[in-house]
Amino acid sequence: MKKKVVTTDNKEVFLEHKRKKTWEDAKSGHKCFMLYARSLYITWGAREHWIWNSFKDTSDENIEVAKLSHVCWLDVRGKFKISDLSPGTLYEVVYEIKLTKSAFGWEPPIKLRLSLPNGRVQERQVSLLQKPRGQWMELNVGNFCTEENEETGEAREVCFDLYEHGGHWKNGLVIGGAILRPKS
């Protein structure tokens, strides 16, 4: 089921029961995608570890977000078919997150990893300890360039992960989703 939402800036289309959203970048006209939390793989994503809440999207649509109740093994993963993106374009992948005011356990840094079909992997660490609380922020996972003549028959995918496997208990992280957009 597809649901269309028209905004003043550009046309947004919700896909797969509000699990994804697509629109065109206003400057370049290239495709952008938002994969909401429900379209990501969240380890321990069951009710005892994560709380699924409704949240108003920028287009005033109710979207589900995942709020971390408590885990010691954080693992959030996403993947996307490169053939659905605009060819010959430099893309960036970012996770949209928020820390609640009472969030704790973020002393160890989290890791962000971008894996490309050619085997290239980009990894970085980010400390959330000093990040602002109660407001949405973006964590850049990495950048990649789509091929000019991308084969549509192949199932080539870009994979992106946010994780911390140190066994340190944590809570208060809210996952809005992951954004794939042209890098400006």
From TrEMBL:
Q: Which Pfam families match?
A: PP2
Specify the superkingdom: Eukaryota
MF terms (GO), sorted A to Z: carbohydrate binding
Coiled-coil blocks: none
- Per its UniProt record, what InterPro entries does this chain match? PP2-like, PP2-like/Lectin
Listed name of the protein: Protein PHLOEM PROTEIN 2-LIKE A1-like
Q: Which organism is it from?
A: Durio zibethinus
